Amino acid sequence: MNTYVTGTTVKQLREARNMTQAELAERIGVSSKTVSKWETAKGLPDISLLQSLAQALGISVIELMNGEQITNRNVSANMLRCKFYVCPVCGNVIHTMGSAVVSCCGITLPALEAEEADAFHSVTAERVEDEHFVTVEHPMTKQHFISFLAYVTSDRLQLVKLYPEGNAETRLQLRGRGYLYWYCNLHGLFRQKI
Ligand SMILES: [Fe+2]
């Protein structure tokens, strides 16, 4: 993840669009020598050029800055392919239906990769009438706790925020097959079919 536009990104995107340095330069009103300098890390595009540079390269400014082009294959926005992002600074929880560039507190956040439950983060889901009573076997201290539980089905998300010194448990309405997610502030995201 970059903190500003890099020459490699400009070069890759320009070549992918079969554009010469001169053609790109003309579109944004600079000389081809300037583009060449950017691509060889001997200079950086002025911030005032970012909008037109991104436009000429066919991507958004934020993608240009990150050096990552987002191609969202989840066009039907199937919730089962959703992603979670958690800000390590303020604890913000962000849910998206597909790929996105997400930032919070000035940090670009990676999509969390969910792991299988381990012995220290095991979950039990007990069916009580039309609900699941879900409990995570885990400490709930201020330093180490489960910060949210989520139940995702193809068309719905139920997200429950949990707090330190509370209980790592909740009731979730039964909605058919889906995934249960839970997030430990120290050990990350876990997932289990439910
Ligand atoms: Fe943990």
Structural summary, described in words:
The chain is α+β, with helices and mostly antiparallel strands. It contains 5 helices and 11 strands; from the N terminus they run αααααβββββββββββ. The strands form 4 sheets. The chain has a 4-stranded antiparallel sheet with strand order 8-7-10-11, with no helix packed on it. The chain has a 3-stranded antiparallel sheet with strand order 5-6-9, with no helix packed on it. The chain has a two-stranded antiparallel sheet with strand order 1-2. Bound molecules: fe (ii) ion (FE2). The site of fe (ii) ion has 7 residues, from loops. Fe (ii) ion (FE2) binds next to loops.
Biggest sheet architecture: 4 strands, antiparallel
The neighbouring-strand order within the major sheet is 8-7-10-11
Oligomeric grouping of the chains = single chain
Q: What count of helical segments does DSSP give? A: 5
Present as ligands are: fe (ii) ion
Question: In terms of per-residue confidence, which ranges show pLDDT below 50 for 5 or more consecutive residues?
Answer: none
What integer is the average pLDDT?
A: 89
Structural class: alpha+beta
Classify the helix fraction into a percent range: 10-25%
Order of helices and strands: HHHHHEEEEEEEEEEE
- How much of the polypeptide forms β-strand, as a percent range? 25-35%
Shape: elongated
- The Rg value, from CA coordinates, equals 22 Å
End-to-end CA span: 34 Å
- Total number of β-strand segments? 11
Give the gist of this structure.
This protein is an alpha+beta fold and 194 residues long. It has five helices and eleven strands, in the order αααααβββββββββββ.
